Amino acid sequence: MSSLILPAVLSGLMMGAVYAxxxxxxxxxxxxxxxxxxxxxxxxxxALFAVYFLNFYLGIDPYLAIPIVLPVFFAxxxxxxxxxxxxxxxxxxxxxxxxxxxxxxxxxxxxxYFWTSNTRSVDIxxxxxxxxxxxxxxxxxxxxxxxAALAAAPLLWLFxxxxxxGSAIRAVxxxxxxxxxxxxxxNHTYAVCFGIGTACVALAAxxxxxxxxxxxxxxxxxxxVAFTTVVLGGxxxxxxxxxxxxxxxxxxxxxxxxxxESLGQIGIFVAFILILLFKPSGLLGKVGR
Amino acid sequence: xxxxxxxxxxxxxxxxLQGLDLQVKAGEIVALLGSNGVGKTTLNNVISGFIRxxxxxxxxxxxxxNGRKPSEIVAAGIAQVPExxxxxxxxxxxxxxxxxxxxxxxxRVEQNFERVxxxxxxxxxxxxxxxxxLSGGEQQMLAIGRGMMSEPDLLILDEPSLGLSPLMVEExxxxxxxxxxxxxxxLLVEQxxxxxxxxxxxxxxxxxxxxxxxxxxxxxxxxxxxRQAYLGM
Lengths: 289, 233
Description:
Chain A: Belongs to the binding-protein-dependent transport system permease family. LivHM subfamily. Chain A: One of its GO terms (cellular component) is plasma membrane. The complex is a heterodimer of chains A (about 290) and B (about 230). Chain A is mainly α. Chain A has one domain (about 15-245). Chain A is built from eleven helices and two strands, in the order H-H-H-H-E-E-H-H-H-H-H-H-H. In chain A, strands 1-2 form a two-stranded antiparallel sheet. The model of chain A has no long low-confidence stretch (mean pLDDT about 90). With about 230 residues, chain B is α/β, with parallel strands linked by helices. Chain B has helices at about 40-45, 70-75, 95-100, 105-120, 120-125, 135-150, 165-180, 195-200, 215-220, 225-230, and strands at about 1-10, 15-25, 30-35, 55-60, 65, 80, 155-160, 185-190, 200-205, 210-215. In chain B, helix 3 (about 95-100) runs parallel beside helix 6 (about 135-150). The model of chain B has no long low-confidence stretch (mean pLDDT about 90). The interface of A and B includes residues 164 and 182 of A.
């Protein structure tokens, strides 16, 4: 049995890194715009389809699609916030919830209409390649996803800590009026933030597709875990989301090992309830903001 | 430099400002005096672009600026240090100051940074500290320093002495004179009539959305009506 635990932990970490990447986008949007983006999963699904079609029609490798899909989805996120969510919400947070929820329904159902509910996956030559780590054989695609997702987190942090736009985003998040007074365009900054959040799911899509599949409902698989990750890590905390994502990946994998594959996600929600019971602000959340 | 004429503004159906005219010339300190709730902050918000006036116009250096976004008004050369300071508490003092120069070319930022550090030596000692750890007076200095980083031609200070110790209030007014000596015009919005008239060249007294007195600071200081109403003398 013990020989199974290490591979399960490693494979959980691989999946957890992708959960973390998706949650990073969500927590960034929440931390700055203070809105919960229900369309996050649908945007992930859209990105997965984009990567799939780039491969299917143009033969572009999912990893090589990163420089195409990332800027396109940044622009899409920017436009959604600037052109749709912000004008339609007229400043009310309840409206934002409804708009992003409506957006996710529209995107999901349009995807269902145009692309049907068939499960699709890409056909790539290295699909079944494995890498041996500490005696465990792990799919190459998962290892790459792990490395890239883990590299994205510090890059995002560096961007937030050391660039002009990054400090403008942090300023807007904490003191909107003060930010306007130093000349920061708040609507533009919000849209940039939404764009970065959307680019995170686009990157996740490029990393996922080689070892995963896409259907119009695939967003749900991830968005629930992503919400859990965000709350568990402490709403708005980037480092918290990273740790929580990895943790949930491992818990899911171990539960899958002991309770059976289909029950893996139970562990995620049990751990979620337990941690919130003992630390309601999440792992790295601040109490009473 | 700043020309306000016939400004009316309010919130919803409630009219607060009932037709105000005000000028600030280049390099002047002008005081805007009045007690709580007479419309001082509303006028500030009109100048900074947060509230659209229902009538009248605000022009700056000859261009009409009402209707522009707050960020564009900062770029035009007006910096407002708001009531309540609105600094970024989780960012360091250095980051707060650098964000003050958000709309300025990087070439001059270093030079302005040095200048602000010279005016506010207390900030220079704490550059790496997060702004939330500063005392009230130091936060006020940071807010003013942040405003100075945008190289304004006009600095609007909304109740800079509010909540400060008497010693700190003295220091604050001395600093305002020092900033003005570099050629920055200051619109000083205050309840502290005595101190403000001490540093200002001219002043306006606002009551219920209207100017009830205006003129040279020295003349106003000698006015028996003003002494009676605001100084209790």
